[in-house]
């Protein structure tokens, strides 16, 4: 049934899947209203593995899901096989005058090894509204890196009966967006080192003859991709006649004078590999400069692809022109005189835009219960802004229309992806959220009590996590309260989703509900979408709809354009983290003083780079500490993405692999025809 033609897939939506007595009246509503391709499932107990569930459900061709739900045209959808595809940006152009739907961001408490189920909740909510409550709905979720998929974390399609499917295609190559980022990022890295090599093995005259060669008639012409550097040098008026440049101007144009010690542009790979955290490049004899009489080698490192600034740019770009402009602004290194050097200076912006343009349209998929989903971009939330793309959200809000709902996901807790959603993503998109869902679990709250035993991967949980203990839950709720208050300070309604696990008790749930409501939540609802699909999140869905109906008064935490850099940082520390003061290293002080003199840099929003596990800059401090000092070690500008990255500590840019990585379980089952993937989680 999984790979059957559309007619067979539609026929497979039988009373057996809807319930023994056929569709209930409430389920008839979604068939006529919200999502015509919805298919509520009949869950099994105990819940099978994620991949077993994903492969057991008959799917509707994704093109039909989007056409039947939103009335999209044939030329607005581009299938990559039957169950994934791309959505043309022309759809937004056609629908841009249509009113937006309700905008809901899903975030969480500070994550723990026990898991909160944020992606699962995002999908479960969409299934509840689209397959059970008769609403037009769209899920906007991030695309995961393949590194953690084969490492320790596993995939990010959701789980149980609340998944984006097919989960194999979701967690693996998708439509190649991450590969496009890898190619573009590494092309830029190659351009930087190659330019450094040629400048140190040639002269300005030699560079000029090769960069702007004479044609057969003896005439020279600049490539259009060189115009940006000419404008930067104040030579824009000569861009159509290279022969007007003086010898001094030729040298300024040709010689970037790269300071190799300032090159920050790492190479990337979509794989967990800690052996690439520190490498030496340029060791081949071909990288020896006779002119300088030295080997042009240097220390460098790799990063995982999703940490690339190009990923953040893809997530924040609003159209192809904006994408190209942002790519051109990326700073990769500095000249020996301290001048920032960008992709525009290297003349590579056009090539990067060409590599990335096909990744800009969002990817179309569906949830397990047949509601539509857009999967697009996956920037990290601890080193970037951690949200799915602006383009996916904007198109989604037009597709669902005035009374519909778009659920978008923010990485980690409301202090990380949530705060950056409000103050970076919304700043650039101009969109205002109606509601924020904060996901928590009883087990995670117990860990945040700071009194429960430490959780060790691979070891059985202690009884504190598997037996009722309302005292630990109440103490751990301090972390939840901090996140509720963070959302409310942005003027947004907060709905708490208590993701139910089998060891929870009703008494523990009641503690969370009481504390949440006492501290400003619009509602706090227990949800069982992992085990029951959308049916298990109906009450949560109703609470979200109620919060959207009540409305929000969204406001950013700070004035990005006019507040000083230190003022913006302090507001985040005090209002979001609960700290009191900020301490700056000498290095950070010097950089801030430099940035304050540049109004374009000074006016950028702040992207805090810190541990996701704590409200502080110390991963071991759980719960909700108060009155602490945040230590800023470094600050740098991601000029293309459009934010200032404030580093509070050392962050690994490429994960490693454990003793037993997830790849041990992944294989092909040749007893199925065609062979089927097994072991993905």
TrEMBL record:
It is an enzyme of class 6 (ligase). GO terms for molecular function: ATP binding; formate-tetrahydrofolate ligase activity. Keywords: ATP-binding, Ligase, Nucleotide-binding, One-carbon metabolism. Pathway: One-carbon metabolism; tetrahydrofolate interconversion. PROSITE patterns: FTHFS_1 (PS00721). InterPro entries: Formate_THF_ligase, Formate_THF_ligase_CS, P-loop_NTPase. This is formate--tetrahydrofolate ligase.
């Amino acid at each position: 049934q999984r790979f059957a033609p559309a007619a067979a897939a539609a026929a497979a939506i039988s009373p057996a899947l809807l319930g023994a007595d056929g569709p209930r009246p409430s389920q008839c509503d979604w068939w006529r209203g919200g999502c015509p391709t919805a298919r509520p499932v009949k869950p099994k107990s105990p819940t099978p593995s994620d991949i077993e569930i994903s492969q057991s459900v008959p799917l509707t061709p994704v093109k039909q899901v989007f056409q039947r739900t939103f009335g999209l045209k044939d030329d607005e959808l581009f299938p990559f096989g039957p169950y994934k595809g791309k959505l043309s940006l022309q759809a937004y152009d056609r629908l841009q005058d249509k009113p937006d739907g309700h905008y809901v961001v899903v975030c969480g408490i500070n994550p723990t090894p026990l898991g909160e189920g944020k992606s699962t909740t995002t999908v479960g909510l969409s299934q509840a509204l689209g397959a059970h409550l008769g609403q037009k709905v769209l899920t906007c979720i991030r695309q995961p890196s393949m590194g953690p998929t084969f490492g320790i974390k596993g995939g990010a399609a959701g789980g149980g009966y609340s998944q984006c499917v097919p989960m194999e295609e979701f967690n693996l190559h998708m439509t190649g967006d991450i590969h496009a980022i890898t190619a573009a990022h590494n092309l830029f890295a190659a351009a930087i080192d190659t330019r450094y090599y040629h400048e140190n093995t040639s002269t300005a005259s030699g560079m000029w003859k090769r960069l702007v060669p004479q044609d057969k008639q003896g005439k020279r012409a600049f490539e259009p991709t060189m115009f940006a550097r000419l404008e930067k040098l104040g030579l824009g008026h000569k861009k159509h006649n290279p022969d007007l440049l003086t010898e001094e101007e030729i040298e300024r144009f040709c010689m970037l004078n790269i300071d190799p010690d300032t090159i920050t542009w790492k190479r990337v790979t979509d794989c967990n590999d800690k052996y690439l955290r520190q490498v030496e490049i340029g060791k081949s004899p071909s990288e020896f400069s006779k002119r300088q009489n030295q080997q042009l080698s240097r220390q460098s490192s790799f990063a995982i692809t999703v940490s690339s600034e190009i990923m953040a740019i893809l997530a924040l770009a609003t159209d192809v022109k904006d994408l190209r402009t942002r790519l051109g602004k990326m700073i990769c290194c500095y000249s020996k005189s301290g001048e920032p050097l960008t992709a525009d200076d290297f003349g590579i912006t056009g090539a990067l835009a060409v590599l990335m343009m096909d990744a800009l349209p969002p990817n179309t998929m569906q949830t397990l219960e047949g509601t539509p989903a857009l999967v697009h971009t996956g920037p990290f939330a601890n080193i970037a802004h951690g949200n799915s793309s602006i383009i996916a959200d904007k198109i989604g809000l037009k597709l669902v229309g005035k009374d519909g709902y778009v659920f978008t996901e923010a990485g980690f807790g409301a202090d990380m992806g949530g705060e950056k959603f409000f103050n970076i993503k919304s700043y650039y998109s101009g969109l205002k959220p109606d509601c924020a869902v904060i996901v928590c679990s009883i087990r995670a709250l117990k860990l945040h009590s700071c009194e429960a035993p430490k959780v060790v991967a691979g070891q059985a949980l202690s009884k504190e996590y598997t037996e009722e203990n309302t005292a630990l839950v109440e103490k751990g709720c301090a972390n939840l309260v901090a996140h509720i208050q963070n959302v409310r300070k942005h003027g947004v309604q907060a709905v708490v989703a208590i993701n139910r696990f089998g060891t929870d008790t009703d008494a523990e749930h009641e503690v969370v509900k009481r504390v949440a409501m006492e501290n400003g939540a619009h509602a706090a609802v227990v949800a069982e979408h992992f085990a029951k699909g959308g049916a298990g999140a109906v009450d949560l869905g109703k609470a979200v709809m109620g919060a959207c109906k009540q409305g929000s008064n969204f406001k950013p935490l700070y004035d990005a354009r006019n507040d000083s850099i230190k003022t913006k940082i302090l507001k985040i520390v005090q209002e979001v983290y609960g700290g009191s003061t900020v301490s700056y290293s000498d290095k950070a002080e010097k950089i801030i003083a430099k940035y304050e003199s540049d109004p374009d840099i000074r006016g950028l929003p702040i992207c805090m780079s810190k541990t996701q596990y704590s409200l502080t800059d110390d991963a071991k401090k759980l719960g909700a500490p108060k009155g602490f000092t945040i230590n800023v070690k470094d600050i740098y500008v991601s000029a293309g993405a459009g934010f200032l990255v404030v580093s509070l500590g050392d962050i690994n840019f490429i994960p490693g692999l454990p003793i037993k990585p997830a790849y041990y379980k992944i294989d092909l089952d040749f007893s199925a025809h065609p062979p089927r993937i097994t072991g993905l989680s």
